[in-house]
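in:
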């Protein structure tokens, strides 16, 4: 897992670990499905990772738990 590498690169962002390819991703944008599930797209494998919204803004650092993959 390439964890430390990216954590030092961007410190002021929310991140998640892609459930499909296990890469640490910096959240660019949140999207929302029609039934209200928030997800963020993995830039590497394009998987839609449903994440827990903690209430923090994207500029507040933290790693978001991924609930599941959407399709
Ligand atoms: Zn991925």
């Amino acid at each position: 897992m390439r964890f430390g590498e990216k954590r030092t690169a961007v410190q002021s962002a929310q991140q998640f670990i892609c459930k499909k390819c296990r890469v640490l991703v910096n959240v660019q944008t949140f999207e929302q499905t029609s039934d209200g599930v928030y997800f963020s797209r993995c830039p590497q494998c394009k998987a839609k990772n449903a994440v827990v919204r903690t209430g923090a803004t994207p500029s507040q650092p933290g790693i978001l738990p991924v609930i599941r993959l959407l399709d």
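note: Residues 21 and 44 are 8 Å apart (CA to CA).
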